[in-house]
């Protein structure tokens, strides 16, 4: 019988607050060390570039599986958080268990070596945790171990060096105390956004692995709170709810995808994060979510153009909480959850398996932002009213980091009045 441990993946608060096309080099400051800094940044970007297509494939595959499990519900998760935690777990996995994890994360092991994967994640974490300006993005990993469990020094050293792992001793025989220790740590690291991540802990737990991401972004051009008004949101053919709808008129990156019949609007945050808002026709979400792949998003990026629009976007808060063992098993990560698990790289013996994987994510979208210094009133001057785009029925929200092209978050907003 294998000893079990929990894995909890955690993604925290997203304060999305709206828009504007970034001028070239917008987020380059006037740092005297800038050339050196950028050179280092570029080297790291190249190192994690190899991961980007695989991470994107994993993100959209995971999204498809989750939407099949919960077809008419809000969805919000951080693919980069899940990938990072399982890549770190692969450091301590051996034989088939390790191969399944890496292939389940969409890596082709004939094209990329395990060492390159870990180095790529190391650089990705570093780049995402040190954004140049405007965005607050913290990523990290923590391991909570029972005192009896003595991890292999090489695993701890490598995980600390590559994945910024923090390690803590925990008394799981006292589940209430253990839960408090873990939840307090996560709440602190996610600035209060993620609370009560773990509950009903099994006293037989010997190890818990937590991965967290916290993101707070200000829209490059904020919405004005006085323009927010209550309007209708059509959840489905039978259900309509009232939501506070933010409004802004101006130039937006816009594209209409004729193939998928969906409208795409891109909003920038200050710094390097960007959001794609994708509105399919009413009742056509299923078609969009099952055909969404990284090539689609690349096509949207390539075809966006500046257009004068009257934009309505709901103000909302949602969170997603998932036990994702089943989802990952469907994606080929199987043995690590069974008595076939080989995690001997963590403890030196193969009597360990993962018993539970929890992922929690939260998103806030509101008007707030840092006012751009330059006045932009003149762009509104138009003789005819611009077309109106209103996100008043289920839509997708994809948040990317432009420096690394990483998929930070994927959300499906079915009902913005339901917070979890």
TrEMBL record:
Keyword vocabulary terms for this entry: Glycoprotein, Protease inhibitor, Serine protease inhibitor, Signal
Serpin domain boundaries: 60-416
Listed Pfam families: Serpin (PF00079)
Record bears the keyword Lyase: no
Signal peptide: 1-20
Gene Ontology MF annotations: serine-type endopeptidase inhibitor activity
Protein family membership: Belongs to the serpin family.
Annotated protein name in UniProt: Serpin domain-containing protein
Organism in which the protein naturally occurs: Accipiter nisus (Eurasian sparrowhawk)
Lineage summary: Eukaryota, Metazoa, Chordata, Craniata, Vertebrata
């Amino acid at each position: 019988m294998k000893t079990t441990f929990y894995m909890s993946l955690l993604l925290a608060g997203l304060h999305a607050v709206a828009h504007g096309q970034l001028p070239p080099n917008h987020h380059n400051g006037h740092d005297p060390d800038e050339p050196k800094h950028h050179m280092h940044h570029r080297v790291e970007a190249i190192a994690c570039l190899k991961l980007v297509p695989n991470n994107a494939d994993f993100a959209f595959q995971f999204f498809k599986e989750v939407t099949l499990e919960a077809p008419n519900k809000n969805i919000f998760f951080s693919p980069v958080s899940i990938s990072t935690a399982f890549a770190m777990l692969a450091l301590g996995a051996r034989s088939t268990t390790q191969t399944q994890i890496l292939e389940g994360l969409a890596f082709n092991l004939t094209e990329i070596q395990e060492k390159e994967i870990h180095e790529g994640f190391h650089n990705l974490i570093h780049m995402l945790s040190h954004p140049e300006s405007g965005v607050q993005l913290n990523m990290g990993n923590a391991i909570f171990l029972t005192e009896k469990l003595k991890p292999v020094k090489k695993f701890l050293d490598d995980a600390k060096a590559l994945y910024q792992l923090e390690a803590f001793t925990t008394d799981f025989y006292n589940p209430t105390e253990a839960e408090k220790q873990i939840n307090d740590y996560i709440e602190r690291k996610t600035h209060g956004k993620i609370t009560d991540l773990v509950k009903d802990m099994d006293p037989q737990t010997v190890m818990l692995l937590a991965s967290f991401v916290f993101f707070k972004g200000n829209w490059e051009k904020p919405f004005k709170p006085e323009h927010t008004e209550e309007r209708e949101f059509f959840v489905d053919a039978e259900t309509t709810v009232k939501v506070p709808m933010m409004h802004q008129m101006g130039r937006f990156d816009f594209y209409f995808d004729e193939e998928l019949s969906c409208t795409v609007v891109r909003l920038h945050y200050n710094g390097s994060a960007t959001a794609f808002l994708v509105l399919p026709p009413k009742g056509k979400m299923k078609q969009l979510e099952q055909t969404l792949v990284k090539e689609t998003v690349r096509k949207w990026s390539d075809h966006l153009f500046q257009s004068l629009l009257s934009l309505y976007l709901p103000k909302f808060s949602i969170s997603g909480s998932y036990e994702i063992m089943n989802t990952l098993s469907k994606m080929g990560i199987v043995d690590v959850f069974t008595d076939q698990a080989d995690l001997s790289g963590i403890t030196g013996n193969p009597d360990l398996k993962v018993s539970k994987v929890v992922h929690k994510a939260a998103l806030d979208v509101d008007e707030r932002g840092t006012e751009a210094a330059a006045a932009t009133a003149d762009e509104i001057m138009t003789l005819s009213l611009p077309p109106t785009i209103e996100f008043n029925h289920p839509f997708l929200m994809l948040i990317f980091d432009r420096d690394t092209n990483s998929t930070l978050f994927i959300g499906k907003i079915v009902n913005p009045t339901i917070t979890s």
